[in-house]
Automatic annotation (TrEMBL):
InterPro entries: A-glucoronidase_C_sf, GH, Glyco_hydro_67_C, Glyco_hydro_67_cat, Hex-like_dom2. It comes from Micromonospora zhanjiangensis. This is Alpha-glucuronidase. Keywords: Hydrolase. Residues 465-499 are annotated as: Disordered. It holds the Pfam family Glyco_hydro_67M. Residues 516-743 form the Glycosyl hydrolase family 67 C-terminal domain. Gene3D superfamilies: Alpha-glucuronidase, C-terminal domain (3.90.1330.10), Glycosidases (3.20.20.80). Residues 134-436 form the Glycosyl hydrolase family 67 catalytic domain.
Length: 746
């Protein structure tokens, strides 16, 4: 945030009350703002002072300011009806009484988040008619995973799938100066992120040693992040006992291996008492795992969970496990099935400090996928949803693609149908309802949107997740192994699995001056934290917040034009990208390796999997039980029936679930092949309009900002034209069907 975003706070009289490292951070932030904007600051004065804002820990003793003290004693029943009720970790209250805005928390982390919420509100935080508010994060774990390599990898470079320059942590095998990380921690705390993994999930070379003889580097990062309430996590190699410890095996049931992990973990916590835990990619894309020893993922995850449990840490075990040596000739093989097939049989066997990290879709961060069925299939296991802020398959931060609408739809999706739990509810640990168990269907079997379309993963009504006023967040939990007959280790009768799971995003930050390469991609990073805090927030509201903080009125010419223009460029940009790239749920039509630009058959005949099966007669993947891979059967009702049915499958996912003729008529009334032509032509025109709209801001915003975005939009238009021409030409040559509007196809 530019300094101007702090003006409403920094120009006022502020009292900070309480002690602790994070309270010191609150004070430092307020002092910085007041020095910039002329306000005044007191810390816990013993005399009465006239103030505009109080930021206080409730248990830090009486406040000398009479209004603030009265508020401290009486605000809780006004906010939630529970007199003197304890506020959860990270929770805070905000109220306005007799001309004083008061933020109260019971923990320093809550006070820190209350400070940044006050900054986000701006002048509105000091409106006299502001009602009391209680804010509590819906999800306990709100994390970014950096795919940063310690050494420069010969294929993936310094940052795997990094589109914003180099790593902010590492350079050429060494730790970097942490000056930029000191600013990064402010950025993360301001949006609500509370955990960061500092190295790539594909653990290579020097990165493995961060667990042992290079632990000093991790300690240094943890010390910088700690004052902002951010815990460090570490990606580790499952083969570490062999690679680092000299053992002949990494078998998770071997006592020597268990002892090695216990000792290594103890050494980490001795140096980093608030260490968050381990992230593991195992038996996936060449990474080592328990399969080598005839063990399963529960055996592997529980090994690390056992080592972490005495210290309060968690192991996040990624479910991105599939066979990447498939035979493209075998039509029965299906990468989409893999996570469900591997992990659902293990439900109930994971320790309660294991979190399975599930990609939001069943394949690999494509621009359009159905929600992963695994999220609805493991009631006795903690789950976290993984999304990709770094735009690997959505334009690589060379294209403007605001992903909050996609993520919001995923989090609001109701796996068991309307008026039941959402995905956000599941990962928050909200228990199943009776309706879930009954596998309820809509009368008549037809799922409809309020506006008349078909209800698919691209839409779901607000899901009943309790947000700022109360919440299924910390303190909630999914049923642990002990709640099922024959539950696995770590569970006991009636035990709840801690704090549910959370939301994790692959980071899109690098050492680029704009943090994210494309300045407008900052909006995606902002949305990650805010949606993890409150999944009910709309993409429009989040974009408004980001614009207000990024372009304060005092820093731009014609603030309303800036607001309209940024909305015009970003509002529909996700669907625009979809229009000129991936039709009707088909993905992976990208150039292999670097994944930028079109190559319709690029992966079609490779061992990584097949994705569209286009021939002269039709296109799409048959995933039905009757004639295809059976993937639709992994969903609960009503979605298994909806996806299996040609009549009820949402248009936007038709080719993900069905192989159909080019003349198949969609619910929109268009044929499949004409839809491909129309959307690809329309997508290019939308990018052309985006570029023209941005040019209206010349001379009205920071010139460096303007020029970087202008340059990226020029590239986006060039790329969109290439996508349009290659995809349309491919399907014209396959189908032989001309464009009904007579436009040029090559």
């Amino acid at each position: 945030m530019p300094p101007a975003a702090f003006r409403p706070l920094g120009s006022r009289r502020v009292l900070v009350h309480g002690d602790g490292l994070l309270v010191d951070t609150v004070l430092d932030e307020v002092v910085r703002a007041c020095l910039e904007h002329g306000g005044r600051v007191w810390r816990s004065p013993t005399w009465d002072v006239e103030v505009d804002l109080v930021l206080a820990l409730r248990d830090a003793g009486p406040l000398a300011n009479a209004t603030a003290e009265a508020t401290r004693l009486g605000v809780t029943p006004a906010a939630d009806g529970a007199a003197h009720g304890r506020l959860a970790d990270e929770e805070f209250l905000l109220t306005r009484t007799d001309g004083v805005t008061v933020v109260l928390a019971d923990t320093p982390a809550g006070l820190l988040y209350g400070l940044f919420h006050t900054v986000r509100l701006g002048a509105a935080a000091f409106d006299d008619d502001r009602a009391p508010e209680r804010h509590r994060p819906a999800l306990h774990l709100r994390a970014l995973d950096h795919w940063d390599n310690v050494e420069v990898h010969p294929v993936s470079g310094q940052v795997e799938r990094g589109y914003a320059g180099g790593s902010i942590f590492w350079r050429d095998g060494a730790a970097r100066d942490l000056t930029r990380v000191r600013e990064y921690r402010r950025l993360l705390a301001a949006v609500g992120i509370n955990a960061v993994t500092v190295n790539n999930v594909n653990v290579h070379g020097e990165a493995a040693r961060l667990l042992t003889d290079r632990l000093d580097d991790v300690v240094a990062i943890a010390e910088v992040l700690r004052p902002y309430g951010i815990r460090v996590h570490l990606a580790v190699s499952f083969a570490a006992p062999v690679v680092l410890g000299g053992l002949p095996t990494a078998d998770p049931l071997d006592e020597r291996v268990r002892a090695w992990w216990a000792d290594a973990t103890h050494r980490v916590y001795r140096r980093i008492p608030d260490f968050g835990g381990f992230l593991v990619k195992a038996d996936s894309e060449g990474q080592p795992g328990p399969f080598t020893y005839g063990r399963d993922h529960a055996d592997g995850a529980n090994l690390l969970a056992e080592a972490l449990a005495p210290h309060g840490g968690v192991v996040r075990w990624r479910t991105f496990v599939y066979n990447h040596h498939q035979d493209w000739r075998d039509r029965s093989t299906d990468r989409a099935r893999a996570a469900y097939d591997h992990f659902v049989p293990l439900d109930g066997r994971f320790r309660t400090n294991v979190i399975l990290q599930v990609k939001f879709g069943p394949v690999d961060f494509q621009v359009r996928e159905p929600v992963s069925p695994l999220i609805a299939a493991m009631p006795a296991t903690r789950l976290a949803v993984e999304i990709q802020a770094t735009q690997e398959y959505t334009g690589q931060q060379r294209h403007a693609c605001y992903l909050a609408p996609c993520w919001s739809e995923v989090l609001r999706f109701e796996p068991w149908g309307p008026d039941d739990r959402t995905v956000a509810d599941v990962v928050a640990g909200k228990p199943a309802s009776r309706r879930t168990e009954e596998r309820r269907t809509v009368p008549g079997g037809r799922l409809v949107r309020p506006e008349g379309g078909f209800l698919g993963p691209a839409f779901a009504p607000d899901g009943g997740l309790l947000g700022p006023a109360g919440g299924a967040g910390p303190g909630g939990g999914v049923a642990g192994p002990g709640n099922r007959p024959g539950g696995g280790p770590g569970g006991s009768a009636g035990h709840r699995a801690g704090h549910g799971g959370g939301l994790v995003a692959v980071a899109n930050v690098g050492d680029d001056p704009f943090w994210t390469g494309h300045p407008l991609a900052q909006a995606n990073l902002y949305a990650v934290g805010r949606l993890a805090w409150d999944p009910r927030l709309t993409a429009d509201a989040l974009l408004d917040e980001w614009i207000d903080l990024t372009f304060p009125p005092s820093t731009v010419d014609d603030p309303e034009l800036v607001r309209r223009t940024v909305h015009a460029v970003l509002d529909d940009s996700w669907r625009t990208y979809e229009r000129y790239t991936a039709p009707l749920g088909v993905g992976f039509m990208v150039r292999p390796g670097h994944h930028y630009g079109p190559d319709v058959d690029g992966y079609e005949y490779t061992p990584w999997g097949t994705y569209h099966f286009a021939d002269r007669d039709g296109v799409g993947v048959d995933r039905t039980p009757a004639t295809g891979t059976g993937f639709t059967g992994q969903y609960p009702q009503p979605w298994s029936d909806a996806y299996e049915s040609l009549e009820r499958c949402p248009d936007e996912l038709l080719l993900f679930f069905h192989h159909v003729p080019y003349g198949h008529v969609l619910h929109s009334g268009s044929t499949v092949v004409q839809h491909i032509y129309d959307t690809h032509f329309a997508g290019v025109e939308q990018v052309r309009r985006m570029r023209a709209q941005w040019r209206e801001l010349a001379g009205r915003i920071d010139p460096a900002w303007y020029e970087r975005v202008r340059e990226r939009l020029d590239e986006q238009l060039r790329s969109a034209v290439e996508w349009r021409d290659q995809v349309n030409t491919y399907f014209f040559r396959k189908s032989g069907v001309p464009d009904a509007q007579g436009r040029r196809i090559y």
